[in-house]
Amino acid sequence: MDDAKIAEVSSVAASGPQQLPAPLPAKSNGLQKAWRYFLPLAIFVGLLGFLYKGLSLDPRELKSVLINKPVPEFTLPQLHQPNKTLSASEMKGQVWLLNVWGSWCVSCRYEHPVLNELAKQSVVPIVGFSWKDRPEDATEWLKKFGDPYTLSVSDIDGRAAINFGVYGAPETFVIDKAGMIRYKHTGPIDEKALNEILLPLIHDLQKAG
Amino acid sequence: MSLQLKVPSNKWLVSAPVGRFEAKVADDARQNGSFNIIFMTLFTVMICIWSIHSSAEPSGPAPVVSGVAFAPTTPEMEARLKKLETELRCLVCQNQTLAESPSGLAGDLRREVRILAVSGKTDEEIKTFLQVRYGDFVLYKPLVTTKTYLLWFGPFVLLFGGGMVLWWFARSRRAKLESVAPSLSAEDAKRAMDLLGG
């Protein structure tokens, strides 16, 4: 571009703004004006609501589809006496907990003192479900950290756990007298979950027929 | 698990700084000879954060030798299993299919799918088997149910809404411009064309 052209362009640019007409007189009425402010605000508040809800949602926590369904039947070798077995049907007639755990599971160790405490109160039998673990590792672990389980079964290859829809450890199922799954706790049970959810539910189920 | 720390040479890092700040940090560190220490500290902190994060989740099970042996199958069966595994979700690594997930549970579920398929179950029966245990989420492609209407049709609603808003804005803007912009005289139009055409 030569200098003359640049000068011409810049003179046009300089004189440009003066040639533009005055800004538009506001044509919109009051209602339209209100919408202009209200709509973005409404969208923002809506978005805020979704985001707030999202804070308390854990995508890893999947609701069990087995709630209010009969407990899946299993017959598994007992951990401490592998020549003996335990079946889910043998637990019928009482409220019981099934706690899925593994010696390889870090969160299980976090949960363990709470289970030990619960076992001391002896309000409910806890069946330990040793998931995908070597029996010797599991027994060693229980010796080290205490054994809160009334009975322990060993699901070495993890096939029985599939029937329970287990996808991580620890997981705890609350099963009623009729052998129906009433609740599933995913992740480690802490004091709060025990006192506010599990114990009241267990008491209710024990009182019921 | 043992970690081998391989600290790259200073030259490599300093010659490719990411930004001005990093360059300054690298430069300062090189001058007082503490570059390696800073690098090592950052690396250690990263490893710590990573290990805390990984232990906070219910982790996948450790590999245990399976008691169920895999029977050799036909290539057709292998192809069918492969396809089926890509249509099922791993519940541990939730954005991966059973075919691609390295988790222990995915291995168990692949084995279960194989056992069911070899025993003569249809694809539908196998999917239902997993659905009644793990829920609809186990299907990698979400079902179209009242719960997933928003998921399936939400984007189209947004696209349509966005298009409407755009159209409405463009129309009112054009109306505004047409009402105020004086049309160019033939002389001005020629001048503009000359300027633009160059």
Can you put this structure into words, describing what you see?
The complex is a heterodimer of chains A (209) and B (198). In chain A, the strands form two sheets. In chain A, strands 5-4-3-6-7 form a five-stranded mixed β-sheet. In chain A, strands 1-2 form a two-stranded antiparallel sheet. Residues 9-18 of chain A have low confidence and may be disordered. The radius of gyration of chain A is 32 Å and the shape is elongated. Chain A is of the alpha/beta class. The N and C termini of chain A lie far apart (95 Å). In chain A, strand 3, helix 3 and strand 4 (126-131) form a beta-alpha-beta unit. Helices cover 44% and strands 16% of the residues of chain A. Chain A has helices at 3-19, 30-55, 106-121, 135-145, 159-163, 191-207; strands at 75-77, 85-87, 96-101, 126-131, 151-155, 171-175, 181-186. Chain B starts with 9 loop residues before the first helix and ends with a helix. With 198 residues, chain B is mainly alpha-helical. Chain B is elongated, with a radius of gyration of 31 Å. The A-B interface holds A 1, 5, 8-9, 12, 21, 24, 59-60, 62-66, 102, 104-107, 131-134, 156-159, 161-171, 186-187 and B 55-62, 64, 66-68, 91-92, 94, 104-105, 108-109, 112, 131-135, 137, 176, 179-182, 195, 198.
Task: Please specify the SSE layout and strand pairing.
The complex is a heterodimer of chains A (209) and B (198).
Chain A: H1 3-19, H2 30-55, E1 75-77, E2 85-87, E3 96-101, H3 106-121, E4 126-131, H4 135-145, E5 151-155, H5 159-163, E6 171-175, E7 181-186, H6 191-207
Parallel strand pairs in A: 3-4, 4-5
Antiparallel strand pairs in A: 1-2, 3-6, 6-7
Chain B: H1 10-15, H2 20-32, H3 35-56, H4 75-86, H5 104-118, H6 123-134, H7 149-180, H8 186-197
Helix pairs in contact in B: 4-5
